[in-house]
Here is the input.
Amino acid sequence: MKAAPVAFASLVAFSLTLAAPVWADTPERAALLVEAMRDNGCAMTGDEADAILPGMGLSIDEVDAAISVLYPAGLVTLSEDGEALVLSDALCAADAAQSLTLITGAFDAAPVMEPWSPQITGAEGAALIGALRDNDCALSEQEAGETLPALGLDMITTRDTVAVLLQAGAVTLSEDGGTLRLSETVCTMEADGDAALTEQALLDFHAMQQLSPDAEPLEVLTQHFGLDGIRAMTALYAETVGCTIAIDERAAAETAIADFIAEQMTLIFSFVPDWPEEARAELFRLVGATLDDPGPEFTRAGDILTLTNCTP
Here is the structure.
């Protein structure tokens, strides 16, 4: 039997929303999702969800929050091929009032959701990186479904590994979310460094504290990141641009680094793309301080900063 494709974008989206809060009106919003699934034959694929749910005003976050409660309660399951979400028999047969009662009961019984934390090893990260490198540094969803299980990488392990390596800049997703690619730097590096790269990426990931979804960029920068956090993000930026940062054109360098950090933080913490002016100013201040004193991970030669533990 052919293996089901690994939906990279869905895996990562799921991993980044596991700590989403349960809003007060989520049972009612979840009932809309259930109603849409019931009207669709009590099942719904990802493509069908994309076509149907936005028109009902259901956001991705609301759908993820609903599934994260209904699935453990057994009110929804996955089809055998993993392509569709399926209502339980009880929920499929229920009328609107009965449906809301079942859903509300699931939310009342749901445990407090702990922040998601990746559970992977350096060896598992190295296995994924190696599979990518052996396939011209890229894997489609279908190729991943055929290749990764043989390496001991199941859906959960793949999800966690992709999320960690994405944050580290070691891999990227295509615009359609269907292809995972190694960064140019990692693609050309020696395989014996893959496990160490993953382990460092894990350390960096755990260092970034899970924050409440209503945290603002300025709060994160001042109370959680500070200069050390921006130094770490600047090191990540250096890894993506060939291990060196030219600061002869200081304003251009500061802008490039700040834009990179803002993009990464917006993805990780679900910030709005347009940061408040105060947060943007604080980010530039911290980037400027980093370029003045980048810390022990960099060496300076004239107008060039070099990340020492980095393979171009």
